[in-house]
Every structure is written in C-alpha cells, then in structure tokens.
Amino acid sequence: MIESANILNNATPKSLILLDEVGRGTSTFDGLSIAWAVTEYIHNTPKISAKTLFATHYHELTELAKFLPRVKNYQVAVKQWEEEIIFLRKIVPGGCDDSYGIHVARLAGIPVQVLNRAKKILAELEAGELKSSKLTADAIHPVSYQLSIFSPKDNLITEELKKLDLDKLTPIEALNKLNELKRKAKG
Fold first, then answer.
1. DSSP symbol at 53
2. Most exposed among 38, 63, 128, 157, judged by the fewest C-beta atoms under 10 Å?
3. What is the DSSP letter of 51?
4. pTM of the full predicted structure?
5. Phi first, then psi: what are they for 128, rounded to 5°?
6. Which three-class secondary structure string do you get for 36-95?
C-alpha cells in the first residue's frame, strides 16, 4: 500500500508505472475496490496519465477496458489439455476469465490431498453453495499418529506435570516444584 500511495502521489506523464497485485492482503472486495479505484485514478488524472502495466488476479478489472478508453487487457497465453495447463510464455491481447491458482499450486508441489480439497471448495464457492457444515464434514482430517520429538526423560517430566494438582499447591510449593522439574530436565 505504501508503494501504491507513493506512485499515486508522485507519478507524472513521464513515469512508467508497474503495479502488481494491488489490494492483495485485504479482503477480496476491499482489494478489488482499491485496485479498481487505483486504475481509474491513474487513467483519469491528467497530472499522471502515465504508461502503466497492472498485473492483477481480479478478473473483474478487465471490465474497465469497456469504460476507460486507454485501458487495454493482455494475458499470458495458456494451453489446457485434460487436467494439465501449460503456460506458453506469450502475452496476447484480451482478458482472462479463468483462474489457474490450483494448477499453479500443483506445479509448486502442494500435496494432492490439499489440491483435491481446494478443488471441492472452489466448486462450492463458484456454485454459491459453500456452507460451514459442509466445510467441517469434508475437511482434511489430521493423521492419527504423532511423532515424538521428546526424549523418554521429557516424557517422565510431562507425566509428572500432568499429575500435579495446581489448585492444591501454594505459590511457594509450585515454584519449588517448577525448580525441581527444571533440574530434572537439565540433568
């Protein structure tokens, strides 16, 4: 936001403005609103009117080309084959009406279990049927085992702590017990 503010307050017609993901880190509607308003401001403010490259994930911003005469949409060409996508590393005219976030997550190495869950959530969001009860019911459940990073001595100290009835200890007894456990942990 600080960089965006600096650009909006200091750009001139001689500036080249490069913006990427304005509004990210806010709620979806906040971010979209900020990105939209920034685009309009740069376009409509004569003291700026600078050449601007604006990368965004908000598909809705492509609509601005219909209302702002100097706005032009471009996208990275993508070839989709079955479940795979290939980024062609070519910039072509037009806006993109699809999102490839889950595909990019797969390319980055996100676990299949997470990708499959994300696809289900996305389908529900797109259908407007997302319900919290459904989210809980289908959630990725934790694995039923846990590796211990503690030594057997640590486990004994943990067991001793569990047996303590803190409500029956005086403050000085609690302090003495803590000191004793600390000595055992070091020992």
1. E
2. 128
3. E
4. 0.63
5. 70, 25
6. HHHHHHHHHCCCCCCEEEEECCCHHHHHHHHCCCCCCCEEEEEEEECCEEEEEEEEEECC
One-letter amino acid for residue 46 of the chain: P
pLDDT at 139: 65
Cβ contacts of 79 within 8 Å, gap of 6 or more: 85, 86, 88
**Taking the chain, what is the end-to-end CA distance rounded to the nearest angstrom?**
52
User: Between 112-127 and 101-108, two packed helices, what is the crossing angle to 10 degrees?
Assistant: 170
pLDDT band at 28 (very low <50, low <70, confident <90, very high): confident
Q: Are 11 and 48 in contact (CB under 8 A)?
A: yes
Q: Provide the residue type at 16 as one letter.
A: L
Residue carrying structure tokens 């009835």: 165
